[in-house]
Amino acid sequence: MDFTFTEEQQAAVEAAGAVFGGVAPDGVPSPALTAGAVADDFDRALWAKLADADLLSLLLDSAYGGAGLDAIALCLVLRESAKVLARVPLLESTAAVVVVQEYGGEETKTELLARAGRGEVVLTVAANGRTGHEPAERAVTARQDGDVWVLDGVQTAVAWAHGADFVVVPAHTDDGRTLLALVPREHAGTVLGEQISTTGERLGELRLESARIPARRVIDAEGAWERLRELLTTGTCALALGLGERVLAMTSAYTGKREQFGFPVATFQAVAVQAADRYIDLRAMEATLWQAAWRISTVAVGGGAVGTGAVDSGAGGALPVAGDVAVAKIWASEGVRRVVQTAQHLHGGFGADTDCSLHRYHAWAKHLELSLGPAAAHEEALGDLLAAHPLG
């Protein structure tokens, strides 16, 4: 398998590096030093720079002003964003517009996509359900009433909800279908409460009380929710990789200049072995991420929708895409935790100083780990897939 990135994908990385190069995580207060959220809104100035660099429209078709790239390009940019803990809804908004583009109605696409690519409209996704321990689509019910859908339920821990214009809400119908409703932030029948994440960012608890959403803003298509969920999950793995790479680089720099007994501690075998183990973690996270992103990019939308058990053409006998995503989640969830824990240990007391940016990276890593879920659960899901799809 050729993992060489295309010229377009490499250009996206270069553009992302230029945009994120001036972002300093030290400039944001530590969540441990604030009484509430670190900020009321996401970084609007950075969002505008991403729009100017055409990084918000990477996955949009040219008809909407986009570059027509794939999930690999998105993950490459997300990896760069995580290195500086960029406070923008890049993953959520991009994943949402991709699903609107692939499954939405023409009126909604015309209304939203080009504007989203220019940064004028921001979307986010309610992906955690009522408690974070149940399928998100089971937390909200949907029933049709003429040309509107009526939604009732609660979605918790909605990322960037207080700054987004629309929240994509999965909901289930009586006959077991899953819909995706584009709910405006301020809409009759909706109440948005405040929650604070491990990172110190504002999350939203979205309560829907007979909220009436026009049918044109509801996506009722098989595979749409699975597609959105797997884009979000794979993107989160990319964030974990970028964060982990930055933390290991910080650890290498610190241990290279910190001396004990007249020598840099990086020259001590115990330190070198721990750093080497974390390097191996990162390389495994990287390999499994690109495998998952490649599979998502090559499986066609439609009859064999992502996540429904379909495989890409020519890959007879392969696992469904969900299998590759599960492997990426296993490595990302475990790997990012091990990387930041080792970094804290090798930084010594300095790593526990809340004035040090490592403290923020540790908080973001924990948030990503919790978002991905426990590796044991993904291993069990992978085992079920292997049992259902034995490899020849």
Automatic annotation (TrEMBL):
Gene3D superfamilies: Acyl-CoA dehydrogenase/oxidase, N-terminal domain (1.10.540.10), Butyryl-CoA Dehydrogenase, subunit A, domain 2 (2.40.110.10), Butyryl-CoA Dehydrogenase, subunit A, domain 3 (1.20.140.10). Keywords: FAD, Flavoprotein, Oxidoreductase. It is an enzyme of class 1 (oxidoreductase). Its EC number is 1.-.-.-. Residues 39-120 form the Acyl-CoA dehydrogenase/oxidase N-terminal domain. The keyword Transmembrane helix does not apply. The keyword Flavoprotein applies. Residues 235-378 form the Acyl-CoA dehydrogenase/oxidase C-terminal domain. Its cofactor is FAD. It holds the Pfam family Acyl-CoA_dh_1. Belongs to the acyl-CoA dehydrogenase family. PANTHER family: ACYL-COA DEHYDROGENASE, ACYL-COA DEHYDROGENASE FADE28. This is Acyl-CoA dehydrogenase family protein. It comes from Streptomyces kaempferi.
